[in-house]
UniProtKB/TrEMBL annotation:
GO terms for cellular component: plasma membrane. Its main location: membrane. Keywords: Cell membrane, Membrane, Transmembrane, Transmembrane helix. This is Lysine transporter LysE. It comes from Arthrobacter livingstonensis.
Amino acid sequence: MTLLSLLAFAGLCLLLSLTPGPDTFLVLRIALNRASAGVAAAAGSASAAIVWAGLVGVGLAAILEQSAEVFRWVKIAGGIYLVYLGVSSFLKARKAAKEGMADGADAPLPYSRWAGFGAGAVSTLLNPKVGLFYLAVVPQFIPHGGNTLGTAMILGSIEAVIAFCYLASVAVIAFKAMKWLRRPKVNATVERASSGIITVLGFGVLASGAVN
């Protein structure tokens, strides 16, 4: 992998982190009572993301060892998923903007640091979209004859660090972040920007898969 590839992946992870999702609002709810518990939840989520990266890396390594052609189709399927993820996120953002994002947050429950860490880890481990994200992205960064598991762990570590830094920041400024993230215009802008980039990346993957 080149430095440019790593920077491109880091930029994609940053955009995805800035898009409010289940982990973001879980950290927000936990941090409303205790900021340190929210930071612990962010650490749990990041740790679970690395676990997902390892599992996906092992699976992809097995597929590549069995058949390069099957791996190529996995790569194309990953591109299709990225296109779907980008388009569906864009449509969701438009629908949310029209409806005014008029949903209320549940009352926050008190969490200890360990309980926060566990909640963050379980939330990410039980989210199959995290695994699908790695399954779609990792093959695009594996050079010919490269180390599949090693690449997956590097990418997973980058994503985990970025996600933790963002979620920990959200936890520290939970009250302010909650108001900012729930503004329809802010949420819609972030959703559209990230979904557009994911869609373009997906089409690029499909084009490269069709040529190779």
